Amino acid sequence: MTDTYIINATWAITNERFDLRVGHTEEPEGISLSGIPLPGVTAIAPAGEMNVPAGARTIDASGKMLLPALFDLHASINIDGHSKRESIYRAGQAANHGGVWGMLVMPSRGFCFDNAATLDSFYEAAGERSFATMIPAGCITEGMQGEQQAPYNTLAARGITILSDGGKMPDNLLMLYRAMKYAAEMNLTFAIRGDVPCLTRNTYAHPSTTSYNLGLHGTPACAEEIGIETLIRLAADTGARLHIQTVSTAEGVAIIRRAKQNGMANLTAEVALHHLLYTHEDIGDYDTTFKTVPPLRDQKDCDALLEGLKDGTIDCIVSDHTPCLPFAKKQDFVSAPQGMVALDTFLPAIYTHLIKPGKLSWADVVRTCCTTPAAIATPYDREEDTPIASPLLLFTPDSQYEVTADSLSCGTLNNPQLGKTLSGTVTLPIN
Amino acid sequence: MNPRKDLITIDALNDEDIRTILDSTSAMKDIFTRSVKKVPALKGKSVLTLFYEPSTRTRSSFEVAAHRLSADVTTFTVSTSSVVKGESVHDTIDTLMSMKMDYIIVRHKHSGIPAVIARHCKASVINAGDGSHAHPSQAFLDAFTIKEKYGDVAGRRVVIIGDILHSRVARSTSTILRRLGAEVAYMGPGPLVPPQQHTGIPRFTNWDQIFEWKPDVIYLLRVQNERIDSPFFPAADYHAAFGVTEERLRRIDDLDMGIMHPGPVNRGVEICDAAMDYRNCLINNQVENGIAARMSILYHLTPKTQSND
Amino acid sequence: MPSISKEQIERALDAWAAHLLQTTAAAQQGSTLAIVGIVSNGDVLAQRLVEKLASAGCHALYGAIDITLYRDDIDLRGKRPALRSSHLPFSTDDLTLVLVDDVLSTGRTARAALDVLWEYGRPERVELHCLTDRGGRQLPIQPDYIAFDLSAEQSPEVKVFLTETDGRDEITF
């Protein structure tokens, strides 16, 4: 393969401009910028200083941002009624559109990663069908039923490093305590959402004007906070690594901040993009697109989550991608399934709603959406027996596009950006 | 009022709509005094009652209203023995569409179901109570009952007592009364009354505060143990703490307050026996006015079933 | 725009009352007379006629009916017409009944009014009296008395203003 020259690209973290040569040669040391390796880049020079041979393939990246592609630590890819291969293909394509090169795939009804056979067939299908690297998260319990621990040793031998029951907090804390003690020895990470199931059963919205006006039972914030506190205590006692999923409340952020300040190691946390962008008011007149678990909360919670991201309390932003068929979302709010799809529009939505208004810097986004989540998931090539580095992407901030049903490739339409205009388009891979 | 297909919530109506429906309620009530208690306004129209939750009272009230407007009434029997899921509502809509109904009156335990049905069919959909969300026809009959008794709703004070959290009646009735210029307050057991910052309605915790506030009407909600999925409060306390006891009835009488209740009442829980015969007990007026209010609602809605598109 | 003045209306009402006294009242032969106006305007005219009859010593019952719920065009209009209260506190059984309206045209209102009356009983005899007739009948309905016959004017619109509701007495066409 011949070299490609990328001229005048803006490195997102420092806002400096560079020329790059992208080629085939693997350099053992590799080239890096801001401490981030640039896979495939064989030469780099300040903009205008690269010696480009006549006739070489050149991409003019003026006005485009160069950054590592994003890694999503929380995606469910199962589409009801579709084959697994189709679900994998769709999610991979959507991820690429949204600037995501790799994702941690949550176990779900369709992809119940509690045994070796399911994992083997998943790896095979994902290798053939996916545009994105897919890392499965193993189940905490068999069938995600919350009762019997899954065979962690077997799962770890198949490359599993993170365990999750798809966000569900087990009812049985004794089971979880023992699971953590067992898995701690294998360096597995538990990814769980803070919850007290008996406090959140049959609840559908944040307790608020919205829950009152629509007559929907409220999901108390304290359920999540008690859950987070419980998980932290269990992890501290057992020594297990803990990743707290989809924190949604201000007090939840404060609890994690205190734990980290008290020196708790092996604790990470994530926020779903929608908990930064929307509040319960977006539910409006029962818009089921905005039905999520945990529910969309108050503006003060959004603000606290953003603050937590900036000071490092919250480690990463995730998509919490959850495809739901249009038929299912057309039901009433109580019956409709929870969740949004976000992969297709992930980086453009982050840019439009967080970077452009100055809420987060590019450096924050690279840290919380690229390097930190990838470090937590430790993507690994099992055949080559090497870690996989993030590829690069180019982002064109000035181009605008309207999100239409046709522009979504994830297979379902439960994307709150549908019908809205977003800034920025993604080029992945860059050459 | 401008043509409107459905009645799902009071919030969806403008002030003119509310006034028109209330004014016509009075004209509808005149019909009850005639020897022939029937008018031909909806002759040839078909009305379907689709109740996923049992309610003899509301259903019969709507059926009598529809009969008095000369409409044909069909009762769609929904099995209540199994849990009725949203999916089957969707399938039911297709069935209803092919039955060419003009008006569909829906009750369901899930908040938001009537809106889903309304979006997907041409018939006028009337919400006869959905989950903890709304019960607009009850709101109209309540507002009409207060208007009839006191001449005007504006300036009246009404306290609604009981399980506000689960009550669609509290939501819809408080909304219409406040839109018409009344002051509303809530009172009930702690876990069953949402905070004022969510409701915008002042919250009392005991009867002393109520007597101090001097409402014109005491509106009692039914204690619905069947809807409460788990214990919310010590049930044995209810009558003594929140009910109209004989002692409280004497003060209510002294202060000349009215008593209302959406029915059916639990005697000895929300209300003592004696209060049912109290001179300002408006519960029977509510029942009679319910038919007139529902006639007015049926009359003012315009189904899209006439158009050919 | 041609119009009929307050004085002309006043004179016409006197003549109308006189006509009622001479013909209808005389012909009733023991049965009670009721003047029933169609809401709106007909009720006002009926009230005035009852008063004029009373001052002439003849007692007549007063009633008002809203025919909206009996219209044959409820479905043809997008918007449902507002309802007014009817006021007919007596049975119409065996009465001689004079139905009063302001403008007679197609005859559809009168048809609906007859349906309403029969819901209250079985009158002995019903007459139709109108302040104006602008022609354009679509039903086999003829008035027994017309104060102003405007049918030759071929006026598309006749408007009746009455002091009780509009602050002045006037007819424009």
What does this structure look like?
The complex is a heterotrimer of chains A (431), B (309) and C (173). By secondary structure, chain A is an alpha/beta fold. Chain A has two domains: 60 residues, no CATH class; 319 residues, TIM Barrel, CATH 3.20.20.140. In chain A, the strands form five sheets. In chain A, strands 1, 2, 5, 6, 7, 18 and 19 form a seven-stranded mixed sheet that branches. In chain A, α1 crosses α2, α7 runs parallel beside α8 and α8 packs parallel to α10. Chain B has two domains: 132 residues, Aspartate/ornithine carbamoyltransferase (Rossmann fold), CATH 3.40.50; 151 residues, 3-Layer(aba) Sandwich (Rossmann fold). In chain B, 40% of the residues lie in helices and 14% in strands. In chain B, the strands form two sheets. Chain B has a five-stranded parallel sheet. In chain B, α4 links the parallel β3 and β4. Chain B is globular and about 55 Å long. Chain B starts with 14 loop residues before the first helix and ends in a 9-residue tail after the last helix. The model of chain B has no long low-confidence stretch (mean pLDDT 91). By secondary structure, chain C is of the alpha/beta class. Chain C is built from four helices and eight strands; from the N terminus they run βαβαββαβββαβ. In chain C, the strands form two sheets. A five-stranded parallel sheet of chain C has the order 3-2-4-5-6, with helices on both faces. Chain C has a three-stranded antiparallel sheet with strand order 1-8-7. In chain C, α2 links the parallel β2 and β3. In chain C, α1 crosses α2. The model of chain C has no long low-confidence stretch (mean pLDDT 90). Chains B and C meet through α1 and α12 of B and loops of C.
